[in-house]
Amino acid sequence: ELEEKFQRDPSALTLLYVRGSNGQSVPMSSVANLTTGLGPLVVNHLGQLPAVTISFNLKAGTSLSEALESVQKLARETLPSTVSTSYQGTAQAFSQSVGGLAVLLVV
């Protein structure tokens, strides 16, 4: 950990040394480039994976099941297969209850 006086100046990272593959210390600047740019202030996580929350309200006359179908269709069409999705809150409770209903009807 850097001393507080070095934490205020990003260029202080060039003073750091890391252990190289041969076990010797090498300057951080020999293995990384320091660039400044914009980034998020916070990265939310769910189960140790980066997560984003998308909230929606139902327009008048639209049922929750219709909205969830639309969201699922849009996700299938636009998101890469490496992205996983899940519902939270009311949508999650609804999905779980509908899933339980299907099992109840089969029995």
What are the defining features of this structure?
107 residues; alpha+beta; 2 domains; two-stranded antiparallel sheet; 4 strands; disordered C terminus
Structural commentary:
The protein has two domains: 1-37, no CATH class; 54-106, no CATH class. It has a two-stranded antiparallel ribbon with strand order 1-2. A two-stranded antiparallel ribbon has the order 3-4. The chain has three helices and four strands, in the order H-E-E-E-E-H-H. The chain has 107 residues and is of the alpha+beta class. Strand 1 and strand 2 form a beta hairpin. The protein is elongated. It is 35% helix and 9% strand.
Tell me the helix content: 25-40%
- Biggest sheet, open or closed, and with what strands and sense? 2 strands, antiparallel
Contiguous runs where pLDDT drops below 50 for at least 5 residues: 102-107
Give the ordered list of helices and strands: HEEEEHH
What characteristic shape results from the CA principal axes?
elongated
